[in-house]
């Protein structure tokens, strides 16, 4: 119809959403593409996995976010590849052309040396992952109640978490509270002492990106909750029923949850030389992909390698959001042939929660832990959910969990079957 | 340990739950078995399918219901068969013995002449069914937005519902409201006039079990909402893209939702002669399976054939609940060698809702329709949900739908793939 520049954003994560929002009512046509029809709030995925929140509370249909944005459209599609020469994307919804392309495809699990056994692991990168994990844990608890089951009880009940970052420690804390407050009520007669939860971290401390205080306090909190924390603990193998560490110690469990790392999830069709460490896309200080004028990358998938940040910025939601907001302005400047503004990350702090009244917060000028940190964590996370309904239901669920020491949601809606051939039951 | 009589109830539906509750603190050991770990509130399944309620609002973990029942245990298991001679069940959780057995296994879809094409149909008997339906409809809407899609738009958007009972008309009404109030907001540019919703009923009226007024009014309501209602309309074939009626008229659609009938879901191992019409188990006036003293059936799966009810009682939740409550007393009488009490169904009425301010209620002495009926319907359904959390969240979601003319939940969490080979996309 008209000749407005066509801006295509791949990925409706924190970066893609922030960027598309910043184009509201600007003289450009924006097309946002995602393989799912919803945006999800990744930091609370572990709450879905442990029955604290409903999937609907942390996910929100993308189309609803942009209902009042006349110049923003959405397409649910998977992107096969980009042809930067033709300025087109090949997708499950056909060929899509662009004037400006923004790759905001985020990250995927990095299994490192566990790549060959990844089908035996449970993960926490998506809502189906979280629901699978919830089903798997509750199925195992049901299995543990059977008299005729021929699997050793500790193999069924034990849980290993690999990775001591925020995802790993938040999940460990939530599982520990489930073990203590929920499972004994729902599974009377079950020998809960057979359930050991081990957390393995390869580095010498938990929460590597946070302060020493936060690392030490989160370790203390986990131990108080009964988690066995292993530092400098490199995992070396997993056969489906037993995880082996580099020092050859083993732990019998059919439940290994992998939170040990992520890598970029770039699209196909980019020149090989722009893919750098961590499978991320090399960008300049304006988030332009190196060698391109009209192709950009933001968020987890982008890495601006500099002397200050030789590995690029951390893979965090605020980085993606800040990059998205600035990039939309820069693209408008580029369209108007004005000079671009250099991206500078404003670190607003990081936080993680282990359990009730147990959280750690690192602000740039103030680091604190404990009950107040936990309240701050809850307030910020509820406030960050999209939509009043989701904020309210999350508040309600957490408030009721707080009062009752309970978790409301333990449905095995789709029995989870692992891909490995050992597991043939439903 | 002790010699309390062991009562085994198969099925945690309305009948099984009511019965197990009635045994609270009695001098018997109760084991409740279900293939799922939750009880679900079947009458609101269509709300999950159309994005009005979360699955977690209408389903509740069985173990939580019985937390404070010391003499009631739960086992998640599938029952393969019963051996009434040995007084045992063979199940996925091993052999389970009983002194008294209650079969409360409910009903399953009856596809009648559509049995050969059942894999091409969508159904609404379980929570996975409802989530599949929700995914399927939203996937189709996304597909309709693609320029390159090679399926005709009316085939994608049209919906056929077979069956004009409560499930069919409630679903049709909810879909009509989605079409009118939600889809145009989320899918601007989509030619919604291509979406026709046809409801086929083989009988000469809708809601066969309800009053003439209720039937006529529900038909009027559906037509007001834009549903094409076809009475005396027997469906004869479906090929995946086109449904054919007995009169050879056809309707192009890839979405056929089957709500046309149910039949009993008895367990294996019973003598053939006790399985009567509608695949139900023949019971006497005490809900004893004919020919047995200690095997009983209640609810949808049971049929007490009498001159008054030659086809047995209707397959409704209140029947199952009343039977369950009386049977627990009767079993205690039987244990105490006292005479049993004959079951008498107290009909408290039936109701169905078509849409906002459009419902029909038949009480034994008062039949009414419209806004007040709708309020009564909502009040009773919210009140019937298990747990304060579920009541509150359902109330919140419905209240917000009422204010906003919206439905909050449209996530395609697991892309639904139909079993038929035509459908290979995600």
Automatic annotation (TrEMBL), chains A, B:
<comment type="similarity">
    <text>Belongs to the NADH dehydrogenase family.</text>
</comment>
<dbReference type="Pfam" id="PF22366">
    <property type="entry name" value="NDH2_C"/>
</dbReference>
<keyword id="KW-0560">Oxidoreductase</keyword>
<dbReference type="GO" id="GO:0050136">
    <property type="term" value="F:NADH dehydrogenase (quinone) (non-electrogenic) activity"/>
</dbReference>
<keyword id="KW-0472">Membrane</keyword>
<dbReference type="InterPro" id="IPR045024">
    <property type="entry name" value="NDH-2"/>
</dbReference>
<feature type="domain" description="FAD/NAD(P)-binding">
    <location>
        <begin position="6"/>
        <end position="324"/>
    </location>
</feature>
<keyword id="KW-0285">Flavoprotein</keyword>
<dbReference type="Pfam" id="PF07992">
    <property type="entry name" value="Pyr_redox_2"/>
</dbReference>
<dbReference type="InterPro" id="IPR023753">
    <property type="entry name" value="FAD/NAD-binding_dom"/>
</dbReference>
<feature type="domain" description="External alternative NADH-ubiquinone oxidoreductase-like C-terminal">
    <location>
        <begin position="348"/>
        <end position="402"/>
    </location>
</feature>
<keyword id="KW-0274">FAD</keyword>
<keyword id="KW-0809">Transit peptide</keyword>
<keyword id="KW-0812">Transmembrane</keyword>
<protein>
    <recommendedName>
        <fullName>NADH:ubiquinone reductase (non-electrogenic)</fullName>
        <ecNumber>1.6.5.9</ecNumber>
    </recommendedName>
</protein>
<keyword id="KW-0520">NAD</keyword>
<dbReference type="InterPro" id="IPR036188">
    <property type="entry name" value="FAD/NAD-bd_sf"/>
</dbReference>
<feature type="transmembrane region" description="Helical">
    <location>
        <begin position="371"/>
        <end position="388"/>
    </location>
</feature>
<dbReference type="InterPro" id="IPR054585">
    <property type="entry name" value="NDH2-like_C"/>
</dbReference>
<keyword id="KW-1133">Transmembrane helix</keyword>
């Amino acid at each position: 119809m008209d000749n407005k520049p066509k801006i295509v954003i791949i990925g409706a994560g924190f970066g893609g959403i922030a960027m598309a929002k910043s184009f509201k009512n600007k003289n450009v046509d924006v097309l946002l593409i995602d393989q799912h029809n919803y945006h999800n709030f990744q930091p609370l995925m572990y709450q879905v996995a442990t029955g604290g929140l409903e999937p609907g509370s942390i996910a929100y249909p993308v189309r609803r976010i942009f209902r009042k944005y006349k110049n923003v459209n959405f397409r649910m599609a998977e992107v096969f590849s980009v042809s930067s020469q033709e300025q087109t994307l090949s997708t499950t919804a056909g060929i899509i052309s662009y004037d400006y392309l923004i790759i905001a495809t985020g990250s995927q699990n990095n299994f490192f040396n566990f790549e060959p056994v990844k089908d035996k692991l449970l993960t926490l990168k998506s809502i189906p992952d979280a629901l699978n994990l919830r089903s798997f844990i509750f199925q195992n608890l049901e299995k543990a109640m059977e008299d005729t089951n021929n699997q050793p009880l500790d193999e069924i009940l034990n849980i290993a978490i690999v990775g001591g970052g925020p995802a790993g420690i938040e999940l460990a804390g939530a599982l520990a509270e489930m073990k203590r407050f929920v499972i004994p009520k729902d599974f009377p007669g079950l020998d809960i002492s057979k359930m050991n939860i081990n957390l393995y971290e390869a580095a010498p401390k938990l929460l590597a990106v946070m302060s020493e205080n936060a690392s030490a306090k989160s370790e203390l909190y986990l131990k108080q909750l009964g988690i066995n924390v292993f530092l400098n603990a490199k995992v070396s193998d997993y056969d489906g029923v037993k995880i082996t560490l580099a020092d050859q110690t083993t732990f019998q469990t059919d439940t290994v949850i992998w939170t040990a790392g992520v890598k970029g999830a770039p699209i196909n069709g980019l020149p090989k030389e722009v893919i750098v460490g961590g499978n991320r896309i090399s960008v300049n200080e304006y988030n332009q992909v190196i060698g391109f004028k009209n192709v950009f990358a933001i968020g987890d998938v982008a890495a601006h390698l500099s002397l200050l940040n030789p590995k690029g910025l951390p893979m965090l939601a605020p980085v993606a959001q800040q990059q998205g907001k600035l990039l939309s302005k820069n693209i408008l400047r580029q369209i108007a042939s004005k000079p671009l503004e250099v991206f500078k990350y404003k670190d607003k702090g990081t936080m993680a929660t282990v359990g009730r009244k147990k959280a750690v917060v690192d602000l740039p000028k103030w680091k604190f832990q404990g009950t107040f940190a936990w309240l701050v964590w809850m307030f910020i996370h509820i406030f960050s959910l999209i939509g009043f309904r989701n904020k309210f239901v999350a508040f309600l669920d957490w408030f009721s969990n707080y009062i009752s020491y309970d978790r409301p949601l333990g449905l095995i809606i789709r029995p989870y079957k692992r891909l490995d051939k050992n597991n043939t039951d439903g």
